[in-house]
Amino acid sequence: MSTPFMRRAILGAAAAGLLLLSACGDDDEPTTTSNGEDTPAADGEGAPASEDLELVSDGTLTVCSDVPYPPFEIEDSDAPSGYSGFDIDIVQAIADGLGLELVVQDVGFDALQSGTVLAAGQCDLGASAMTITEERKENLDFSDPYYDSLQSLLVPVDSDIDSLDDLAGQALGVQQGTTGKAYAEENAPEDTEITDFPSDGELWPALQAGTIAGILQDFPVNDEHATADEGYHIVETYETDEQYGFAFPKDEKPALLAAVNEQLQELRDNGTYDEIYNTYFSTDS
């Protein structure tokens, strides 16, 4: 059974397990961001010129993401792009560091993780809590990892389900195209009815309506639901050694990929990454 202490302990472990990227460069001169604020440059030469990054739209970092997927992607009318969440706040900081405006397009996750949307030139990169896998690398390039994740099982508190094995003969909800679905297919009882949904926006209401008996997906997303509604809890977590990365069209944007990795390192070095992380995954509450 998941308790507030258990959730904090797991999030604390995830925080401790986050990769520390190697330090780079000397102190840089600041550049002016799209919001008019001074931000350290990507390197000693300054941020790359927009035209060198081969962007979909000059002066704009166009990001595709599957929304909603709290706490990673959230609709937010108060945010500059209209979206917030851990992923979006990170790419907003990256865009600011590169002197670019951030534009977010809401797309289906399956088309994003397969590389279809990026290959079509709809956006510059994908930021959508996407696990780096060898299969996805066949069609996508990935940034350095920026988040370590677990899988988890969320069920109603008043159910008799204590583990994945208890879902024999019942419906288990997963998001299509995800590593959570792959884990369920490999580990759930053979007679479990694994039901695909386009996104968490359909999964969560289905569990509330009793259409499915549980949700197997990334721990932080299930934890968000368990924290918001005491009628649901996480009964199991699964160590899958997953790491998220930002996705790029295969072999098409090497300069942008390098610039994003430089900005990720800069965010870690100047403390901005930790500030954003603690906003969504603080272990103090």
Radius of gyration: 19 Å
Q: Major sheet: size, sense and barrel closure?
A: 5 strands, mixed
Q: What structural category do the secondary elements indicate?
A: alpha/beta
* Series of secondary-structure elements, N-terminal to C-terminal: HEEEEEHEHHEHEEEHEHEHEEHH
Distance between the termini: 19 Å
**Low-confidence spans:** 1-45
List the helices and strands and how they pair.
Blueprint: H1 4-17, E1 30-32, E2 38-40, E3 60-65, E4 74-75, E5 83-84, H2 86-97, E6 101-106, H3 109-113, H4 116-119, E7 125-126, H5 134-137, E8 140-142, E9 147-156, E10 171-175, H6 179-187, E11 193-197, H7 200-209, E12 214-218, H8 219-228, E13 232-244, E14 247-249, H9 254-269, H10 272-281
Parallel strand pairs: 3-6, 3-7, 10-11, 10-12
Antiparallel strand pairs: 1-2, 4-5, 8-14, 9-12, 9-13
Helix pairs in contact: 2-9, 2-10
Explain the overall architecture.
There is one protein chain. The chain starts with a helix and ends with a helix. Helices cover 33% and strands 24% of the residues. By secondary structure, it is an alpha/beta fold.
Sum this structure up briefly.
The protein is an alpha/beta fold and 285 residues long.
Features:
single chain; 285 residues; alpha/beta; 5-stranded mixed beta sheet; 3-stranded parallel beta sheet; 10 helices; 14 strands; elongated; disordered N terminus
